[in-house]
C-alpha cells in the first residue's frame, strides 16, 4: 500500500496485543491518519498499564465497542482502505473447545461480511502456526496443516473464510500471517512467563533444552504484515500467506540465554524429569483451581514447553524479507521499551 493510504484502517480485535501494536505501527509510520479499534474490551480495561498508555490520548486512534461474533452496523465516516482481523480466542488453557470456534470462525464470517459491505479491498489476518499440529519435523508453508487442537482447527477454518472473501472480487487483496508465539511489551503470555521464571530462578528444563520454539517479536510481525501489503501492490499477488517466525526457530535454551544476556544476569538452569514436573503441575492444579488461584505450572503449559514447533518462514526468506530483529535484539527492544516487565 502507498506510504499514506487514503481513507482509514479498521482493526478488529484492535485493543488486543497484536492489534494495539499494529495500530501504533500504522499511525506512527504515517500510513493512516485515522485507525479505528473495534473490540469489546475497552482500553481502560487492559491488564497491562503499558498497553493502556500505548493506546490512550492519540486522536488518530479511536475505539469502537463491538463483539466480533455479532453483525456489525457501524460504518466510519472515511472510506475503509484496510481491515485487520486480529480478534481471536487463543489462550491455552482457559477455554472450552466451542469457544475457539465461536469467536474465531463466527468472527471471521462477520468481519468478511462487513468488509464486503463497506467495499474494502485490502485485509490482513493473523492466523497461527497451530494449524500445522504437533510434530518434531521442520515445516514451512507447503506443509500439510493437521491441527490437533480446537484453536488450531478454528484458525484453519478462519483462513478459508478469509480466502472465500478474497475470491469474491478480483480487486481484493489478502495477507495471512501464521505467527509463532508473539512476544513483546504487554504480552503477558508464554514468553513473559519465561522471562519472569528465568529471572526469578524458578524455571527448569524438562529434557527440552534443545526443543525448537518458533516465535516472532510483535514489532517484526507488524512490519511483515505491511511488507506483505506493499508486495501485493508491486506484484499483484491476490493472497500472500507466510509463516511469521524467527529463522531458525530458537531452541528453548536460546530464549533462556538471550533473556540472561539482555538482563545482564547469569543463571544456572537445572533440568528436572518431565514426569516430575508434570506431576507437580497436576498436584498444584488440584489445590489451586478450586480456590481460583493462578499459578505458572499448569500441566497444559508444561506439556507445551516440551512440544517442538520448528516452523520455517519460507515465504519471507524466499522473497528477501528484511528481518529487523534477532531474538536478542527483540528482547533488548522489549526491555528498553517496558523495563518494568523485566523485574528480578
What are the SSEs and their pairings?
Elements: E1 8-12, H1 17-28, E2 35-39, H2 49-55, E3 61-65, E4 80-85, H3 97-118, E5 122-126, H4 150-167, E6 173-179, E7 181-183, H5 190-199, E8 215-217, H6 218-235, E9 239-244, H7 252-263, H8 274-291, H9 299-306, H10 314-318, H11 327-337
Parallel strand pairs: 1-2, 1-4, 2-3, 4-5, 5-6, 6-9, 7-8
Helix pairs in contact: 1-6, 3-4, 5-7, 7-11, 8-9
Describe this structure in words.
The chain has 344 residues and is of the alpha/beta class. The chain is 41% helix and 13% strand. The chain has helices at 17-28, 49-55, 97-118, 150-167, 190-199, 218-235, 252-263, 274-291, 299-306, 314-318, 327-337, and strands at residues 8-12, 35-39, 61-65, 80-85, 122-126, 173-179, 181-183, 215-217, 239-244. The protein contains 11 helices and 9 strands.
Amino acid at each position: 500500500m502507498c506510504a499514506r493510504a487514503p481513507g482509514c484502517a479498521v482493526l478488529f480485535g484492535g485493543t488486543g496485543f497484536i492489534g494495539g501494536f499494529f495500530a501504533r505501527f500504522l499511525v506512527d509510520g504515517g500510513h493512516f491518519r485515522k485507525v479505528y479499534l473495534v473490540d469489546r474490551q475497552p482500553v481502560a480495561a487492559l491488564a497491562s498499564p503499558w498497553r493502556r498508555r500505548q493506546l490512550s490520548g492519540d486522536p488518530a486512534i479511536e475505539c469502537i465497542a463491538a463483539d466480533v461474533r455479532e453483525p456489525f452496523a457501524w460504518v466510519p465516516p472515511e472510506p475503509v482502505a484496510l481491515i485487520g482481523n486480529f480478534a481471536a480466542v487463543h489462550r491455552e488453557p482457559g477455554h472450552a473447545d466451542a469457544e475457539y470456534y465461536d469467536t474465531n470462525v463466527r468472527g471471521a464470517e462477520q468481519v468478511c461480511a462487513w468488509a464486503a459491505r463497506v467495499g474494502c479491498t485490502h485485509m490482513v489476518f493473523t492466523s497461527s502456526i497451530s494449524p500445522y499440529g504437533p510434530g518434531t519435523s521442520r515445516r514451512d508453508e507447503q506443509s500439510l496443516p493437521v491441527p490437533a487442537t480446537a484453536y488450531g482447527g478454528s484458525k484453519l477454518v478462519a483462513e478459508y473464510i478469509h480466502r472465500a472473501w478474497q475470491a469474491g472480487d478480483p480487486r481484493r487483496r489478502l495477507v495471512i500471517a501464521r505467527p509463532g508465539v508473539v512476544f513483546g511489551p504487554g504480552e503477558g503470555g508464554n514468553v513473559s512467563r519465561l522471562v519472569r521464571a528465568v529471572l526469578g530462578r524458578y524455571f527448569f528444563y524438562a529434557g527440552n533444552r534443545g526443543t525448537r520454539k518458533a516465535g516472532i517479536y510483535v514489532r517484526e510481525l507488524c512490519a511483515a504484515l505491511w511488507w506483505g501489503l506493499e508486495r501485493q501492490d508491486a506484484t499483484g499477488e491476490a493472497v500472500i500467506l507466510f509463516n511469521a517466525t524467527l529463522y531458525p526457530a530458537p531452541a528453548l535454551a536460546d530464549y533462556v540465554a538471550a533473556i540472561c544476556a539482555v538482563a545482564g544476569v547469569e543463571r544456572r538452569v537445572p533440568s528436572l524429569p518431565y514426569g516430575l514436573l508434570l506431576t507437580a503441575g497436576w498436584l498444584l492444579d488440584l489445590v489451586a483451581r478450586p480456590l481460583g488461584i493462578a499459578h505458572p505450572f499448569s500441566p497444559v503449559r508444561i506439556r507445551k514447553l516440551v512440544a517442538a514447533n520448528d516452523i520455517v518462514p519460507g515465504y519471507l526468506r524466499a522473497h528477501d524479507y528484511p528481518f529487523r530483529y534477532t531474538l536478542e535484539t527483540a528482547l533488548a527492544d522489549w526491555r528498553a521499551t517496558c523495563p518494568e516487565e523485566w523485574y528480578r
